[in-house]
Specification:
174 residues, mainly beta, Alpha-Beta Plaits, 5-stranded antiparallel sheet, 14% helix, NGN_dom_sf, Transcriptional activator RfaH, NGN-like_dom
């Protein structure tokens, strides 16, 4: 006789209640996966590294067909309910869960890649290619790995813009 095959399902949780919901699901005997990551939190005077859910407001349950008691799952403390479309509860592909687990360090935390270091300094004069036009500006900061925030000089005004980093080059005097 073959073992029953289950599926992973996404469950929405109440805001900042992922760990509370996880504990309550585990107390009911469910297999729970709550991927966590290390991120920055800023407060009035300091910036610190904290561990938070990788998908805020969600966790995953592995359910065998006989465990798919949606009324019980949806009424678990800390949970809002399983993700569904009408009466259809879409399973989360196993490869997605496996890919998340493969990214975890030995601590069980998903280590995010550090932000790419900025190729420019804040306030540095740069030029930006916008279509076929070249616009001068001042580099402000990296927004993410692919975009930079630049103050563009357009019509004698500085306009803050988020542009692809590939479009930004050092200022060249003609």
């Amino acid at each position: 006789m073959e073992a029953e095959q289950g599926n992973w399902f996404a469950v929405r949780t109440k805001p900042r209640k992922e760990l509370y919901a996880k504990t309550n699901f585990e107390c009911q005997g469910y297999r729970v996966y709550l991927p966590m990551c290390r991120t920055w939190r800023s407060s009035a005077r300091r910036r610190e590294r904290v561990i938070r859910p990788f998908f805020p407001g969600y966790l995953f349950l592995y359910l065998l067909p006989h465990e798919q008691n949606w009324v019980s799952i949806n009424s678990t403390f800390g949970a809002i309910g399983a993700v569904r479309f009408g009466n259809f509860y879409p399973p989360v592909p196993e490869y997605l869960i496996n890919a998340l687990r493969q990214r975890e360090a030995d601590s069980g935390i998903i280590e995010l890649a550090p932000r790419r270091s900025s190729p420019f300094k804040k306030g540095q004069k740069v030029t930006v290619m916008i279509g076929e036009s070249v616009v001068s500006g001042l580099f402000q900061e990296m927004h993410d790995d692919n975009r930079a925030i630049v103050l563009l000089n357009i019509l004698k005004q500085q306009i803050k813009a988020r542009v692809p980093i590939e479009a930004v080059t050092t200022y060249a005097v003609a």
